[in-house]
Amino acid sequence: MLLRYFRINDPYRLLGLFVIILLVSLPFLIMPTGVMVSELKHMVLGEAIAEGKLMYIEVFDDTPPLASALFGLMNMLFGRSLLAGRIIAILIIFFQASYFAVLLIKNKAYAENTYLPALIFGLLCFFSFDLLSFSTDLLASTVLLFALNQLFHEIEFKIQRDEIVLKLGVYLGLTTFLVFSYWVFLLLTIFILIVMTRARFRKIALLVFGFFLPHAVLLTLYFYWGKTDLLWQNFYVSNFTFSGEMLVDTKGLFVLVAIPLAYFVFSIFMVNREARFTKYQSQLMQVMFLWLLFSFIQVLVARQVSPASLVLFIPPLAYFISHYLLLIRRKWRAVLMLWLFLGGILSINFISRSGDIKAIDFSNLFPVADSSLATIEGKEIMILDHNLALYQKNSMGGCFLNWELSAPIFSDMSTYEHVEIISSCFNEYPPEIILDKNNLMKEVIHRIPSLGLKYKREGEIYRRTNN
Hints:
single chain, mainly alpha, five-stranded mixed β-sheet, two-stranded parallel sheet, globular
């Protein structure tokens, strides 16, 4: 029944998709996990932006600019509400699934017009619980779908319509304002345009111009403020990496995606054996396959890799798995495979979330609280460490959120620029509490003696006095 329902070309089937996504999401909303490190960081960052602090100048962090602005907006609208963020994430998932299905229908990707890809897309988003979070990965993948739509148009029409290529470049540029490592999709798009549309230098140059246009605007803004050095160091340099931190190890990720991966393998065999494509449909399939390959590259160059980072794989997987189910001739077998897919995805999600699959370790996704500091609540604090757990009940004082960017400043107080940055930070946004396990403030106070009159050390913390 489920397969037959979504196989019909009727936009109202999307209402059924919304009900299914809502029902599947309810257990995660009713019995939520605790706040994840990424969510906690985004909350703290959102508070700072909502207060008027400028990214990379008054907030030392590597979060891309558009993402930080959206976190600031979320804070202004909902404060620190985890529930609000997760509900919006579910709505984004519904939008993505619907948009993807409509995109495939309009571009005649299959022999029949069907909303089955919307269902498969929506189900794939539940392979891990951390996808149900208002995250940069979810936001960036949404913009990437807009870019994909423009790319399909360019492949289909092959008309010298400059606005299509320009918009494609701008969309790709905006994705890097949400997740910087999405720059790899510029390389993918250039390759596709050269191979499939035989695009000439002028069109490739227009694409690249569109990609760099948002960055040119950003650089101009920071040049006006006289802070291009901080933008370059805190955003561009820190995000341009070729080795990411795995928050869940490779074995755990493979277990999480075991069901989609198995269905993808089935689909490759079925498509090669049964499918009959037009030239245009064959090109679309090649695009989706290349998307899958470049998604692996993106994961390799990303700064951090969590299950949510794999949201990039969902559109091509939904495309191929839908193909597989549509090509199964015996209806009962297609229905069985769909229900096994649904049951397998949700089962692994729920079991892994409860910690019963030992191969999957989610511990790095959550902050580790220090019981000795549990009494610190409702303060503006500055943490000179990687662990952000103390922010759960406190807000950010000072300007230093990302310790990888902040550590070089505190470890080299012989540089005048570093002294100036820290002095300005304490003058503008003085924290009430400083967590300093490595006693880095000793050298800071030596260089800025006035701070020694304002802060008193108590164990691992410095507490602001009334002076």
